[in-house]
Amino acid sequence: MSQPRSEQPELLVLRALMPAQMEQLEQAFRLHRYDLADEPNALLDAVGSRIRGVVTGGVPGFKAEMLPRLPALEIVSTSSVGTDSIAVAACKEKGVYVTNTPEVLNDDVADLAIGLVLNALRRLGDGHEYVRSGQWAQRGMMPLGRTLKGKRMGIVGLGRIGLEIAKRAEAMKMEILYTSRSRKDVPYTYHATPAELAANCDVLMLACPGGPETRHLVNASVLAAMHKDAWLINISRGSVVDEAALISALERKAIGGAGLDVFDNEPHIDARFQQLENVILFPHHASGTIETRTAMSQLVVDNLKAHFSGQPLPTPV
Ligand code: 8YV
What we know:
elongated; binds 2-keto-D-gluconic acid; Rossmann fold; 2 domains; 7-stranded parallel sheet; 317 residues; 12 helices
């Protein structure tokens, strides 16, 4: 697209893409940087009526309250696979397209999920601290970890990411069980409910989408069904877990521990997590690699360019 500047569609940027993709946007569109504005409200007043596209990410998402201020809006393109922070229904009602970034992050997210399992059972973080703090020389061998082989991984949500986690867990010789909205054609053991799955696994892996349908899917009774040594790993959304119930279970040592990439109220997480020893904490960064964030950014650009040149959207929601 090489249109004169005045004819370029105008986009509101709520969250920047990777630099190379920002450059592509700058070539093809006229950008208004809400993300950098000193007075974002004043910016909206000034340009809102001309905005035809929004660029955003899982954070800050896109709220329905913005729609009346963007009457010419045609498309919201988010650099995230999750759409729980995007007002998808309100957009659709107004005829505004929404696109996301599925597939391109599956491998990195699945790798990180396995990383958290390895960290939990083999105590990678503890080992690092043991060497760095000099305890190795003072106290000798660090406490033993646990073997992954033969352990049962119960996956909640066997979608695109869940399946990639399952493949990797199989390679670690783990046994795979799952629960999902529907039974899948896979060689893994199906359980009808999260509680039933929780009672039958050593690692409960959350890989389902966030949003109202899965809110607090893992509640106090699911946590109570887990074995005393079992670990909860969450790479989906904080909202899937009742965090108060989880913190209570961790404080009481009712479960082995929790490996968490996602939380309620990120990045201002419940301070009690930072006091616990049976947790592994990661800053919502499972897709946080240069390669994957570049691919996600490129999908945003490709969707916007496709829309404004009348082509089918590569990844509509
Ligand atoms: C990102 C994610 O951390 O894609 C998602 O849904 O949760 C992550 O990949 C984030 O949302 C980027 O905007």
